[in-house]
Amino acid sequence: MLLLVGVIAVLVVTNLATNLLPDRWYVPVCLAGTVVLVSVGVAGGLDRDDLGLARGTLLPGLAWALALILLVAGTYGVAAHVPRLEAAFADRRFREAPGSEIAWRLGVAIPLGTVLLEETAFRGVLLGAARDEMSTTWAVATTAALFGLWHVLPAGQMRSSNETLGAVVGEGRRGHLLAVVGTVVFTALGGVVFALLLLWSGSILAPMGLHWALNGMGVAVAWWLGMRVSRESDAQPAPRRDERMS
After folding, report:
1. Over the stretch 135-187, which tens digit does the pLDDT of each residue have?
2. 151 CB-near residues (< 8 Å, 6+ apart)
3. Is 162 helix (H, G, I), strand (E, B) or coil?
4. Residue 204 belongs to some domain of the structure
5. Is residue 246 part of a domain?
6. How far apart are CA 240 and CA 127, in angstroms?
7. Partner residues linked to 161 by β-bridges
8. Burial of 183 (0-12, 13-18, 19+ CB in 10 A)
9. How many independent structural domains does the chain possess?
10. Do residues 29 and 118 touch, judged by C-beta distance below 8 A?
11. Residue 242 resides in a domain
């Protein structure tokens, strides 16, 4: 139980740091948090198997990861061409971002920040510590619930940057509360899926692959849609003088 409490304490501090410090500190904090969490886990008696890093599971885990990335890429690619589904990707942060920022997010911030920290924390160290104290079912449920709560602070930013989400939940305190509750529930369910992937594959690479695909492909599609809208706008002929004067 001491290990479980210690891991949760590190997660609380890391969550506050990643959400309250300037963006330039995001990846360094995530990397530092990952190192601390693994160190705490190993000191508490967790081994490579507990962390989803057993040598015999790495290749199968990599195969799972690649298959899931291809599946998500195909699904997102189809969704991006369905007009009614385009609104789901309407995130201003990425639609209006330069290509260099998108490349940074896809290649650095998401894999070495978000995915590495969250999967190591919740599906590696925390799940391993929880399974030492309770049944696997309760360990999955507990870590998934904590994963949902991990997203309380970012929920407000997601609401303000995504027009569709903002329109659904509305404005004011009620809108903010609905956005937070919806985000917590949705990410908690995602936490269950990620945990089951680790248990089925035996490797943390499987949930890492799915996590990167969901986040990274979402960013890529939002940016691509923004570029397409911009190109279509530039391609439209300028109004004639008599039309501008009317």
Report:
1. 999 999 999 999 999 999 887 666 555 555 554 555 667 766 787 888 899 99
2. 183, 184, 187
3. strand
4. yes
5. no
6. 65
7. none
8. buried
9. 1
10. no
11. no
Let me know if residue 63 belongs to a domain. Answer: yes
pLDDT band, residue 74 (cuts 50/70/90)? very high
The pLDDT, as a whole number, for residue 160 is 54
How much is the mean pLDDT over the chain? 86
Structure tokens at 158: 């997601």
Give the residue, 167 or 72, on which the prediction is more confident. 72
* 108 neighbors 27 (Cβ within 8 angstroms): yes
**Beta carbons within 10 angstroms of residue 167's beta carbon:** 13
The string of DSSP codes covering 22-38 is -GGGHHHHHHHHHHHHH
> Please, are residues 50 and 65 in contact by the beta-carbon 8 Å criterion?
no
Condensed to tens digits (0 to 9), the pLDDT of residues 207-226 reads 999 999 999 998 988 888 87
